[in-house]
Design brief:
Length: 275
Amino acid sequence: MLVELPEPFDFALTIERFARFGDDLANRVVDGALHRVLDGAAVRIAAASGGAAIDPPRPDLAPAVRRLLGGDADLAAFAAATAGDPVLARLLPPLAGLRPALVLDPFEMLVTAISAQQVSLLAATAIRSRLVARFGTAHGVVHAFPARDVVARLPEEELLSVGFSRAKARAVSALARSELDLDGLARLPDDEVEARLTALPGIGRWTAEWFLARHLGRPDLWPAGDLALRRAVGALYLDGRDPDERETRALGERFRPFRSLAALYLLVGMRVLAR
């Protein structure tokens, strides 16, 4: 079954990050196709003319797949708004069709972000995959991410055993056991989402900004505290000099109101294009 995506759309570039940093058991890329559990069913999502093919053919899952693959992003408006930027003008043509793949479940997104705090993304993926293998549910080649209530019942020692640090284990437990309505955050403006998330232990501005960009799909986030983004800014705009968070945040102002897409294109450009 075909899920239509707006042009331009490049399936391989859009799912690149799910395979770049190791074997993500909840978002597995096998032979170029993305395997993901949606609404309790394992779904194979593959490139197809005009969009993506999903198997089994579930029309009710088409909106979720479209959102997962960044179908709501306005790439044409982004290209027009940033046409005067020399770096993005060079990156956009070879990255045409790169869309912002989203993590659809808010709890999974926050655990993903917590796992990646101050460690390499390879290490973070390995930790999450151990969590998913032990406490998620297998569906063929892919696993469902552990549900919030399952994680809430786990002793912190179980989280330590899969590789979370003590501080991150406490943060994940506190998140799982909190009364915060994660689904309800979608109805709030960016600043209120950030305020509610950062009120929880172990969640700071960086984590909240990635949640807004990569779960809610908000268009104008610029996680200036992200080391990889700072390095990309340094390499592409500052002749190799690494900026601090304040300088990175100031430079990002030029990309309003599309800072989320700008961050995506700079990060992917650094990974997949020859510099």
